[in-house]
Amino acid sequence: MPLVRPALVLICVAVTCLGYAASAGPSGLVNPLLSIEIDVTTGGWTARWVSGPEVSDARFAVEVDGRQVVTGAPATERRAFSDPLGGGEEVRQTWRLEGLRVEREIRSYAGSGRLSLSGRVVNEGPRPVRLGTAHLLDAAGWQVGSLARTPAALVGSNWSQTAVLPLSAVAAGAPPTAQEYTASGVLTWFNPDPGVALTVAYVRAESASPELTARFLPGRGGTGLRAVSRFLNRELPAGATVELNRLRLDGRGTAYEQLESLGTALARLAPQPARTGPIALWCSWYAHRLEVSEEKVLANAAVAARHFGPLGFSVMQVDHGWQRRDITGDWTVNERFPHGLKWLAAQLRERHGFKLGLWISPTDVASTSDLYAKHPDWMLKGEDGVSKVNWRWYWKPNPDCYQLDVSRPEAFAHVASVFRHLVAEDVAYFKIDFIAGQAKETFFPSDPTVTRGWGEFRRAMEAVRAGAGDAWVRYCQGPPLLSVGLADGAYGGDDTADAGQPGMFRVLKDNARILATSFWLNQRAYQREVCDMSMRMQATVEEARVRAAIMALAGTSISWSDELTYLPPSRIRMMQQCLPAGAPPMRPVDLFERTVPSLWHLKPAHEADQWDVVGVFNFDEQPAVRRVRFDALGLDPNVDYAVFEFWEERHVGTVRGGLDLTLPPESSRILSIRRVTGRPQLIGTDMQVLQGYHELKELKWDEATLRLSGRYQRMPGLHQRAFFLVPPGYAPKFEFPLSPASARLTHVHDDLWMQEVEFVGPEVSWTLPFEKATPPVVKKEPNAP
Known about the structure:
Elements: E1 8-14, E2 18-21, E3 32-39, E4 45-49, E5 54-64, E6 67-68, E7 75-83, E8 86-97, E9 100-109, E10 114-123, E11 129-143, E12 152-157, E13 161-165, E14 179-183, E15 186-191, E16 196-204, E17 209-217, E18 221-236, E19 241-243, E20 246-250, H1 255-269, E21 280-283, H2 285-288, H3 294-307, E22 313-318, H4 340-352, E23 355-360, E24 364-366, H5 370-374, E25 391-392, E26 400-403, H6 409-424, E27 427-432, H7 454-468, E28 472-475, H8 480-483, E29 489-490, H9 505-517, E30 527-528, H10 541-554, E31 558-560, H11 569-576, E32 586-588, E33 599-602, E34 612-618, E35 624-629, E36 640-645, E37 650-656, E38 658-663, E39 667-675, E40 681-685, E41 696-702, E42 707-713, E43 719-725, E44 730-732, E45 746-749, E46 752-758, E47 763-772
Parallel strand pairs: 21-22, 21-31, 22-23, 23-27, 27-28, 28-29, 29-30
Antiparallel strand pairs: 1-2, 1-3, 3-4, 4-5, 5-6, 5-11, 7-8, 8-9, 9-10, 10-19, 10-20, 11-18, 12-13, 12-15, 14-17, 15-16, 16-20, 17-18, 24-26, 25-26, 32-33, 33-34, 34-39, 35-38, 36-37, 36-39, 40-43, 41-42, 42-47, 43-46, 44-47, 45-46
């Protein structure tokens, strides 16, 4: 590789070329997207995007055995690279000190306006060393748009949660405010003046706990941007190498494009293929708590098969309460499941075609369990070397609980064997709970080469996947950087609680916030999930609608948790309206405008039709107005669109430019927005919340015969409705007397007509005849004014 000796290396990513200049400045570049100036004497660098963002005076540092080992001038080489994110050129710099080799690479991706940072530490000495904190990025300054306004930010915090710091409510001309940022995975800034964004995010972090911090100061702009990876005194044996986490910076395009690209990047760099795709299931928890039994599971399965089975429903998941003594550690069935899991799985399969799922807390071990009695040394320990209690079990008999030390080979093997055994019992779905205890940095793994907290957590997830194989694995607490490739699904919010529980709507609001602000993960890195949903009768209709809408519109798995045998038909129908599971990618169009984004935009499209859907939410305790701007949806503000609201089955009207919608407290509305064609057209259905994405299989207009035809797919026994806009100049054609050739439509009002559909089988094909019509002529009386 050629050595680069000048004091400054300039990397320019351009639209048509990628090259280096020894001492030239950015002004010498032609149409660049990104320039990176690297000081080869110190390793410091500055990146400038043509779109405006900048990161300046960035440094690199690594602590080993309590001292800084990145000192002096590094050896520098330039070379081409190719990785799963793309190709381009990189500058690799190497520091050597007393048997250690530290490398840092800066990669510039051709034509993308993105760069990444990573490296490694190689112990070439004769003894082990201890790793401290690696500073992949320690930048004195950063800039996103005008200094006159504090930028909005999306913050990936607490490992498995995301939040937004919205744009300041003060006028654009008011002084900016100071802001501190702390994240564990991603920071995205957006400034509407002049509409630029910058995303700094980890795209791979297997070795050390990732952290991001920054500040915005009035008059100075962004300062103190740091991306560190904490090894927490982890040991690096002689002759061993550890890869540093990989950080990516993206300053090109919109914030939405940057975040969605980040989700894709996580999947491409995952050590195992990303797992995506929602499912539909029932969970026993909110229905039965610890009173669950095989009889109750089978009774609910019969109802689910009758009402949900043909709509893609597939799993009956037994929650906490199936295991011996209702504690953790011993994963065998209790007396409420006398026939065993394999028998139950066979009954579900043979009677209804369903699969069996289980809740399990694989690393939590009760002090009263047989596992603890046999292997107390397998538990994670405190700094004093004594097994450390994690928490007190919430349910009686409330034993102390420990966490397994999966850095021990025998404990790792035990976790994997538990899952292998359950899979052999025909369990096909696992809900993993309380595993986040592994993340506590006050626990010390027995293997000193495993990073406390982060590394132990990853080992636990690897043990689960090693035993679960291809079973569907859902984590109640799962950091995105660890979940990708190991989890099928994960969520980060609180339990959604029993529907109708007073004062608990806040948990729906919080879960909606997390789903909306982590939209970029779903269907890219894994399934971004929400806790199982109760829909029981104690909830108001508006609360039930919100529960259904946040699940279905976010594209999560559909997971119901109620005693189905007692639900009324109205709630069963609402649950059917969320099935099948699955939706096109969702974007919250007001992402940076409020702490809980409330306008969720989807663009359904298939061979039959294409349209827009907007979920409109009011999570507050007072009525609120939400403005839907068509240009924000990528629609032409100068043409007419037919807007139909799903829950109220209401034609909002033919609208141009956008609309204001007034919502009751704690409510949702779902809008179908279809471009007006000037001829009879479908504008909505009551079948599924996306109004055509799943049920509409064919839709054709024949201008010669004035016939609109199509095909729906649902399930036998359903009575459904579709709604059509019939504009002036057309009318449904009715034979007199009525005959099968007549249009089977009912006039609702004005230009709105309704088609009633009875599903005898899974599909219904239909044809609606129309005729040209002229407006009626109103005859005036001779002396009429």
